[in-house]
UniProtKB/TrEMBL annotation:
The keyword Ribosomal protein does not apply. It comes from the Bacteria. This is Zinc permease. Keywords: Membrane, Transmembrane, Transmembrane helix.
Length: 235
């Protein structure tokens, strides 16, 4: 079920991006909604598991490492994960660099799932909600390019396939790690989640005006995550 959800979240997002990718506002709204959900999952689910573990005193540096790692990955993806994509500057993103950056990002997120003892856990749903808007933008970028009709679709399909399989592959590798390392991987992913969601939520609006739609979407994302937090068992 976990693998199916991970793959479906990518395929669904890419499909929507391919057919509705020109609606940039829709992509941004999906990102903001997912950011509210993701930061709540991070603070209510991921960090409590990290800081109640036996190694809690040493894990802050791994959270910071996750933040720094995501900053490095964004040098490859050009901020793709939080919506810094514009059709007029598509040539600034190299498909190979994009593929590598997104693959590493999703692969690392999948590792903690190997030792996630809960079916349909909030952490899993955090990844699913996070995948949808990224995949939406990915689909818009890959399948709505000006030169798409002249180019072979196979490189685009390869990027989608690798992104869809990255988290399941990370989960597979996680089975070979000592379960005692789980808090360390969660700390790194927590840093990644925190960086991405905070950039989406707190980046400045144009002219510093209050964007009530954005605030409402963040509140909706937070509310969905809180409902999930309240109605699942905490080990």
């Amino acid at each position: 079920m976990t693998v199916v959800l991970l793959i479906l979240s990518v395929i669904t997002g890419v499909f929507l991006g391919k057919h509705f990718g020109k609606k940039e506002k829709l992509a941004k709204n999906l990102l903001v909604l997912s950011a509210g959900f993701l930061i709540t999952i991070c603070l209510n689910e991921v960090f409590p598991q990290v800081y109640t573990s036996k190694a809690a005193g040493n894990l802050g540096i791994f959270v910071i490492a996750g933040v720094l790692l995501q900053m490095v990955l964004e040098a490859l993806t050009k901020g793709f994960e939080h919506g810094h994509f514009h059709h007029h500057s598509e040539n600034n993103i190299l498909p190979m660099a994009l593929m590598v950056g997104l693959f590493i990002h999703a692969f690392i997120e999948g590792i903690p799932l190997a030792n996630d003892n809960q079916q349909l856990s909030p952490y899993l749903w955090g990844i699913v909600f996070h995948n949808l808007p990224i995949s939406f933008i990915l689909g818009a970028f890959l399948f709505n390019r000006k030169n798409e009709s002249k180019a072979s679709p196979y490189p685009s399909l390869l990027i989608v396939a690798l992104f869809a399989l990255a988290s399941p592959m990370g989960m597979l590798l996680g089975n070979y790690f000592n379960p005692d390392l789980q808090p360390y991987f969660l700390a790194i992913v927590g840093g990644i989640f925190l960086h991405i969601s905070s950039v989406i939520i707190f980046e400045s609006n144009k002219n510093h005006n209050i964007d009530w739609v954005k605030i409402g979407l963040v509140i909706l994302g937070v509310s969905l995550a809180l409902v999930m937090h309240l109605f699942h068992s905490h080990p």
